[in-house]
């Protein structure tokens, strides 16, 4: 099993780049490669025919006859395989290198063949290196050193000392250059992958925060409108202009968050500052239409809790909120953006599902592991707060839902637990920062 795992890893190491990664696509003709491969194949045929006409080998001597047959067979294989580089570049290049190495094992067949065969293997090495620099380096070393070694063993090639030293020096230099290219390519690929991951993470964060902000604001507006409708039927309409103004601000804030998210998702990062006059970007409460992805501090988290609890109070909810004034140890520079989004979701769920007459209790604290949020209330109906509830009741969406935050917390070593007993609902969450 260990051997198979190592072999699989080694094969991945030499895997050529795909078309999506900037490599050559298999199964589709490549005009330039096709033309070059065809010209090389024609040169092979022309030069081999010229050798035959000039008495390349004689059938009278069995030794030379066998040598000529091997040379012709190898040349024919290369002439047939080389043009396929234009259609299946990497596979055909590997086949060409393999034929060359087989011919190296019969030194006379390679060293007495047409010199144009070197063009075939050179093209194959270039194509192989284009797909994977490391594989190209190995192919180059094998295709150069193998005929030298086998020719020396068979006493066909007699390199002198200076030639061997020069060849070794050239190979070492080329290998060093290839190693630098491979290292630079790997580093560039890692940086590109990291950049793509950061971009995906940023887009996901923006999309989720946009959804939360808009959904929760509009849900709050709907609840205010329902409360106003009940007040109108009961003959109580005091403070109606103030309530209307507040709802207008919520709708404007939702639109502002949408514009900011669109700017970020379209790549116009600098456009985030365009709406700075609308509100404070660092304000996570959303009262001023803040940015949908700015870092949140403990003080800003307290401001959010205060603003959201005041919202609930204005629509008839009473509750108890417990949150330390000072910054807990270990959270001085922590990014609490996810905690702010989670608290918004909690307040939205209270407004949507809790019984206003029974109130609620919310506790927010911090420790080294992250933010601890405890919430208890009495739902208007059983299961309203459920963590796996996917379909909102009465057509009002309140953001991503607790299931999203439970998955987020568990992926990072936190937790989110819910208990519901005798009509009372409670939740305890640990959100790592």
Note the main attributes of this structure.
Heat Shock Protein 90; alpha+beta; 12 helices; 8% strand; 433 residues
Structure description:
The protein has 433 residues and is an alpha+beta fold. It is built from twelve helices and five strands. It has a five-stranded mixed sheet, covered by helices on one side. α11 links the parallel β1 and β2.
Cα gyration radius (Å): 36 Å
Strand order of the largest sheet: 1-2-3-5-4
DSSP strand content: 5-15%
Low-confidence stretches: 270-293, 388-399
Mean pLDDT: 76
* CA-based shape: rod-shaped
Main sheet attributes: strand count, strand direction, barrel closure: 5 strands, mixed
Query: Could you give the count of β-strands?
Result: 5
Structural class: alpha+beta
Please report the number of helical segments: 12
What is the H/E string?
A: HHHHHHHHHHEHEEHEE
Distance linking N and C termini: 39 Å
Approximate helicity band: 55-70%
Transmembrane segments: 32-52, 64-86, 92-110, 117-140, 160-187
Protein name: Histidine kinase
Biased composition (Low complexity): 270-286
Keywords: Membrane, Transmembrane, Transmembrane helix
């Amino acid at each position: 099993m260990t051997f198979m795992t190592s072999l699989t890893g080694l094969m991945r190491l030499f895997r050529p780049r795909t078309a999506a990664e900037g490599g050559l696509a298999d199964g589709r003709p490549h005009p330039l490669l096709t033309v070059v491969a065809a010209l090389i194949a024609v040169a092979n045929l022309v030069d081999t025919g010229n050798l035959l006409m000039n008495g390349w080998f004689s059938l009278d001597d069995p030794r030379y006859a066998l040598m000529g047959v091997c040379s012709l067979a190898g040349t024919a294989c290369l002439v047939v395989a080389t043009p396929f580089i234009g259609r299946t570049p990497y596979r055909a290049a590997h086949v060409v290198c393999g034929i060359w190495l087989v011919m190296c094992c019969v030194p006379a067949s390679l060293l007495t063949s047409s010199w144009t065969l070197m063009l075939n293997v050179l093209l194959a090495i270039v194509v192989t290196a284009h797909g994977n620099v490391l594989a190209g380096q190995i192919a180059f070393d094998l295709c150069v050193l193998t005929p030298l070694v086998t020719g020396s063993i068979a006493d066909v090639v007699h390199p002198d000392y200076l030639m061997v030293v020069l060849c070794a020096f050239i190979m070492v230099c080329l290998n060093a250059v290839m190693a630098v290219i491979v290292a630079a390519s790997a580093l560039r690929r890692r940086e590109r992958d990291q950049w793509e991951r950061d971009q995906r993470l940023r887009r996901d964060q923006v999309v989720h925060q946009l959804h939360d902000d808009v959904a929760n604001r509009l849900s709050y507006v709907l609840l205010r409108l329902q409360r106003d409708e009940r007040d109108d039927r009961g003959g109580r309409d005091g403070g109606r202009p103030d309530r209307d103004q507040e709802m207008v601000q919520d709708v404007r804030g939702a639109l502002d968050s949408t514009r900011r998210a669109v700017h970020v998702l379209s790549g116009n990062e600098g456009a985030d500052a365009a709406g700075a006059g609308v509100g404070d970007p660092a304000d996570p409460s959303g009262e001023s239409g803040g940015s949908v992805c700015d870092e949140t501090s403990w003080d800003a988290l307290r401001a959010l809790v205060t603003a959201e609890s005041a919202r609930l109070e204005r629509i008839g909810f009473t509750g108890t909120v417990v949150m330390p004034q000072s910054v807990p140890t270990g959270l001085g520079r922590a990014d609490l953006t996810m905690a702010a989004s989670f608290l918004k979701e909690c307040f939205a769920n209270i407004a949507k599902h809790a019984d206003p007459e029974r109130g609620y209790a919310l506790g927010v604290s911090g420790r080294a592991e992250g933010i601890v949020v405890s919430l208890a209330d009495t739902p208007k109906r059983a299961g309203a707060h459920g963590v796996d509830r996917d379909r909102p009741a009465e057509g009002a969406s309140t953001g991503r839902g607790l299931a999203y935050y439970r998955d987020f917390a568990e992926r990072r070593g936190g937790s989110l637990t819910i208990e519901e007993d005798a009509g009372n609902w409670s939740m305890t969450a640990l959100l790592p920062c």
